[in-house]
């Protein structure tokens, strides 16, 4: 693949964004049972006999479970102790997927044939997707880029169009969508907005991946500072006070950490990836920082349980992987 094509892939990864409109009331629960294309299919999490996904929209380690969650075009997939599991119904496209202490928060589109409104707005689940709580914008908006505090009511979204509740660009709430404020992004000089990560214990601190490096803020994105060289960053996540991120340098995929207090960087050893298969999502288990995972543009999924010393290919091009 030529360099221009690679740049197109990386631009797609970083520039996916969706519009949104008005807010709706929250605190309403929607039953997730018996609403499949096939009538009367109860919601269960069962071991997957076979597995194939063509799109991955996010990954994470929810605090109320023990597995790695994959948000795919065919609903939730869960990798736990060497086995894959999936839901029997409600296979929604959970875009903007965020693992939190109580479960997960997501946006996206409902599975065809269910009674959920399209788009989902922002929803929350505390029972592995069996029921969804409407947080904001239900039936009004879909957010590809969203970030959530691990154990609090703070959320960040990127709005492509201004509305009554949201300004163009980055917006945040500290009360689960009751009120929203615009991040002023002072000091932000990149030509695009990208993936946002929120510090697991301090929701005021966030980082953003851009085509021009990582920008960091400790005041909800009102002021931003470039904390890396001006390089293409495709994915990032917090690991306590350190950022784990992937960059593309000299047509080579890199996986690094950045200590935000000292500015020191360290490179990780990981399986070779072709430069047309960059890392798209990263996850660290907040309950166990030795447990890491990443996905790629071609739907590979790798997981490590020893701080990145050994990686297991658990999904290969969207299919069950191998060691």
Q: Would you kindly provide a written description of the structure presented here, covering whatever features stand out?
A:
By secondary structure, the chain is mainly β. The chain has one domain (3-320): Methylamine Dehydrogenase, Chain H (7 Propeller), CATH 2.130.10.10. The chain has one helix at residues 3-15, and strands at residues 29-31, 45-47, 56-60, 68-72, 75-80, 83-87, 98-100, 103-106, 122-125, 131-136, 146-148, 155-159, 169-173, 181-182, 196-198, 206-210, 213-217, 225-226, 232-239, 242-249, 252-259, 265-267, 279-285, 288-296, 301-304, 312-316, 319-320. The chain has a five-stranded antiparallel sheet with strand order 1-10-9-8-7, with no helix packed on it. The chain has a five-stranded antiparallel sheet with strand order 2-6-5-4-3, with no helix packed on it. Residues 1-10 and 15-39 have low confidence and may be disordered. InterPro entries: Glycosyl_F510_1955-like, Sortilin_N, WD40/YVTN_repeat-like_dom_sf.
């Amino acid at each position: 693949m030529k360099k221009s094509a690679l740049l197109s892939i990386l631009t797609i990864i970083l520039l996916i964004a969706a519009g949104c409109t008005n807010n709706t009331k929250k605190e309403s629960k929607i039953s997730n049972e018996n609403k499949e294309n096939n009538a009367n299919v109860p919601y269960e999490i069962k071991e997957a006999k076979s597995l194939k996904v063509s799109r991955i929209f996010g990954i994470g380690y929810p605090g109320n479970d023990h597995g790695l969650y994959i948000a795919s075009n065919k609903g939730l997939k869960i990798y736990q102790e060497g086995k894959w599991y999936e839901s029997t119904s409600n296979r929604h496209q959970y875009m903007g997927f965020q693992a939190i202490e109580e479960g997960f928060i997501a946006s996206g589109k409902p599975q065809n044939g269910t009674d959920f409104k399209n788009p989902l707005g922002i929803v929350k689940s505390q029972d592995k997707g069996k029921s969804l709580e409407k947080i904001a914008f239900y039936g009004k908006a879909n957010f590809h880029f969203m970030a959530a505090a691990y154990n609090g009511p703070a959320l960040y979204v990127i709005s492509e169009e201004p509305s009554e509740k949201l300004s163009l660009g980055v917006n945040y709430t500290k009360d689960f969508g009751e009120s929203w404020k615009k991040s002023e992004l002072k000091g932000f000089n990149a030509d695009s907005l990208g993936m946002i990560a929120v510090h697991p214990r301090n929701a005021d601190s966030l980082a953003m991946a851009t085509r021009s490096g990582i920008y960091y803020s400790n005041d909800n994105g009102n002021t931003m500072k470039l904390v890396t060289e001006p390089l293409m960053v495709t994915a990032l996540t917090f690991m306590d006070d350190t950022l784990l991120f992937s960059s593309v340098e000299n047509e080579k995929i890199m996986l690094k950490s950045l200590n935000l207090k000292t500015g020191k960087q360290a490179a990780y050893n990981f399986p070779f990836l072709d430069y047309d298969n960059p890392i798209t999502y990263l996850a660290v288990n907040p309950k166990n920082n030795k447990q890491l995972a990443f996905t790629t543009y071609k739907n590979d999924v790798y997981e490590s349980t020893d701080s990145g010393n050994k990686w297991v290919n658990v999904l290969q091009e969207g299919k069950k992987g191998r060691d």
